[in-house]
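Review form for a predicted model. The reviewer records the input and the model, then writes brief findings.
Reviewer: anonymous (R2)
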Amino acid sequence: MTNNSTEPDTARSAPARICLAGEDLDWLGGSSLQAAIDLRIRCALTLAPRPSGFEVRASGTLTGRASSADVWTPADEAWADLARLAVTFHHDRDDDRWPSRLDIVSAIPPGAGLASSAALCVATLAISADWAVPGEPIDAGLVVERELAGRDVGPMDYVPCTAGGVVRVFCHEGRIESVGQLEWPSDLAIVVVDTRRTRDTSEVIRWKRARSQAGDPAIAAYVRRTTEVVETLGALLADEAPDPVAIGEALDRAQSTLREDMGVSDDVTDGCIEALKRQGALGAKITGTGKGGCVFGVFPGSGAAVAVGALVAEGFAATLTEVSKAGVCPG
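Model under review:
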């Protein structure tokens, strides 16, 4: 770092993620399968000797504005507050230089099931910390989101945003017990469709928790059925030559229990999934807590770009992406 520059001193980026199977099993108990994808959020920090304030500037889909940088509006204040909490978490107020501005460019829409808040926390926390232990950014991110920002979030999103790739995350009582790495087939493309319906993730999770605490049998059915899918899909991805059709079928089964047992799908979401299947998806499902947000489908690589073109022509917000092996990284 230079001593007096007002240019961005450091920058870090972190990937979004999709949940292949196992939404909510981080707090219900069990394993989930997560994949980092190559939609990223980049945060650049500027330090100044004695700044009079701290400005957060953002552009891209995180703010709903995809053009030039713009100071966040009051409607974006929750995200600005989260960024401030994360970027100052490790910073000593006695330092000669203090954060004066954070510039964010994001390809991750907020509240869409792609772990935008985890990616934001991971990227900003990484600016001012050198992690000695892999679990440190996860622990720090959860303190920022849960304790400081008061958001009801689980820990599993932080693993792919930090480590990249495809991970199997086992949780017990809201804590990560183990993490395993898996491989994604190189010839299997991912297409994400945004339903364009945002929601408060914490609010949806609280609704689910209340049902679980009341002994809703549908929640127990969801845990049983989605655990079976996680086991099946995990075994497929551990195979040297995984069957793409079988992977698609497993994703369809995961969507079935999200719709029938967890009750987080609706006509709009179902319509997006049907469109993906109509264009050749081998399987498709919600990612994240549901009740809006994003869905994704998997395609043989050769047909994915054509499918995206057709979906966009139909008016869907479709994006072709792939698994990102890079987690949080410089630049």
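Findings: The longest helix spans residues 217-238.
Further findings: Residues 10-183 form a domain with the Ribosomal Protein S5; domain 2 fold (CATH 3.30.230.10).
Recommendation: see findings above.
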